[in-house]
Amino acid sequence: MRNFPKEDANKHNGLAYSADNDKLNLSNLKKRIRFIGHKYSSLSGRTSIGLKKDAIQFESSLERDYVYLLEFNEDVKGFLEQPLKITYINDSKRTYTPDFLVQYHDTEKQDELVEIKYESQLIKNREILFHKFNAAKSFCRTNDIGFKVITEKVIRSNTTYLENIKFLSRYRNYFEILPKHVKVEVTSYHINILDTLDLLKHVEVKVLLDSLMKKSDLKSEEILFHLWYLIANNFIMCDLSASLNLNSSIWTD
């Protein structure tokens, strides 16, 4: 799953959308409209989930965690952070920039504008957010997309799953940048691992590891690296809601 592709930044001049414009065309949303600088009051920065992807900006650790959930959600087709600017009136002309635009593979499911907030922020800034969110809801009704506010109660509802996908994210796109002749060799390793697991059926990681070490010149650390890659990319199944370790049960479809 990738972000929306980028176009020439000059085409949009940093503004993906304003409520003063015509109805939203999602195909025009190619780049973020607001750059996130470093903040001292909260964790902000950029992360690259895949080695070939552009850095994804976030304003808090909660947003960063949400990005991991998006990346490992097979229903998600793409997402864009800081995607558009909504203009509204509250005494004077104001603007609101949602945190994410999320697009789904299922065409029956609405694309969504998503705001990430801690529960405490919703309470503390209730009046300000009320007007921003009303503007967002109005905008979304006009453009036939959804609007959702997500807090830590959802994003961190399963901390074990979250830690597992954070761990696996470092392996997920690792082999994408390798030269073609190296990829061929790597693919042979992966086929060997999958074929062995097919024979063993439903086993623990350590059982597969022992079996592979008997017929391979790779070290255990190298085999595990390939194994984590295959799990991260859904070639091998396991229960990511439980701690991922050598005792984890794994299988293929």
How would you portray this structure in words?
- This protein has 253 residues and is α+β, with helices and mostly antiparallel strands.
- It has 2 domains: 9-155, Trna Endonuclease, Chain: A, domain 1, CATH 3.40.1350.10; 159-251.
- The protein has 8 helices and 11 strands.
- The chain has helices spanning 61-71, 119-124, 126-143, 152-155, 159-172, 180-200, 205-213, 220-232, and strands spanning 45-47, 56-58, 76-81, 86-90, 92-96, 100-104, 112-116, 146-150, 203-204, 237-238, 249-251.
- The protein has a 4-stranded mixed β-sheet. Strands 9-11-10 form a 3-stranded antiparallel β-sheet. The chain has a two-stranded antiparallel ribbon with strand order 1-2.
- Helix 5 (159-172) crosses helix 8.
- The longest helix is centred in the C-terminal third of the chain and has 21 residues, at 180-200.
SSE pattern:
EEHEEEEEHHEHHHEHHEE
Average residue-wise pLDDT: 83
Q: What proportion of the residues form beta strands (DSSP E)? A: 15-25%
The global form is elongated
CATH architecture of the largest domain: 3-Layer(aba) Sandwich
User: What's the N-to-C terminus distance?
Assistant: 20 Å
Kindly identify the CATH topology of the largest domain.
Answer: Trna Endonuclease, Chain: A, domain 1
Strand order of the largest sheet: 3-6-7-8
Weakly predicted, low-confidence segments: 1-22, 32-48
Radius of gyration: 21 Å
What is the total tally of β strands?
A: 11
Number of domains: 2
What percentage of residues falls in helices of 4 or more residues? 25-40%
Q: Give me the secondary-structure category.
A: alpha+beta
Sheet of most strands: 4 strands, mixed
**Which CATH C-level class of the largest domain is it?**
Alpha Beta
